[in-house]
Amino acid sequence: MSILEHEIVSRAANLKSNTLYSTQRRVFTGALVILDGCLVLLAFAFAYIIRFQSGLPFFRNDASGVQLLPAIEPDLAAALVGTVFIYRLYDYENLLAGCANIRYFHATSPVRH
């Protein structure tokens, strides 16, 4: 195999590897967005149940939000996840930034594990 053929084959392999890696990153980010949306909806539903259906004595018994809240919960969840997305917190470089911080903490910690 000539040098030119070897270079073409290696670049094609790198391109395929980079494409696969970027696809994995997109799938990972998309899964996080969907999971965050589901968890926010679950949190809103749980808060609604606690507030309006638990009968706890320290909540007032006004029914002003009983019909309104379930109607706007999906919009609120989408707005919350959208805000996080707009502030680029789902960028791949920001997603796992905490892992690097932990590494630095352990590297500079006086206690060795």
Features:
single chain; about 110 residues; mainly alpha; 4 helices; about 0% strand; elongated
Summarize the structure.
By secondary structure, the chain is an all-alpha fold. The protein has helices spanning 3-53, 68-86, 92-95, 97-108.
Verbal overview:
- The chain is mainly α.
- The protein has one domain (3-108).
- Helices cover 76% and strands 0% of the residues.
- It is built from four helices and no strands.
- Helix 1 runs antiparallel to helix 2.
- 2% of the residues are buried.
- The model has no long low-confidence stretch (mean pLDDT 77).
Secondary structure blueprint with pairings:
Blueprint: H1 3-53, H2 68-86, H3 92-95, H4 97-108
Order of helices and strands: HHHH
Question: What portion of the residues fall into strands of 2 or more residues?
Answer: under 5%
CA radius of gyration: 24 Å
> How many structural domains are formed by the residues?
1
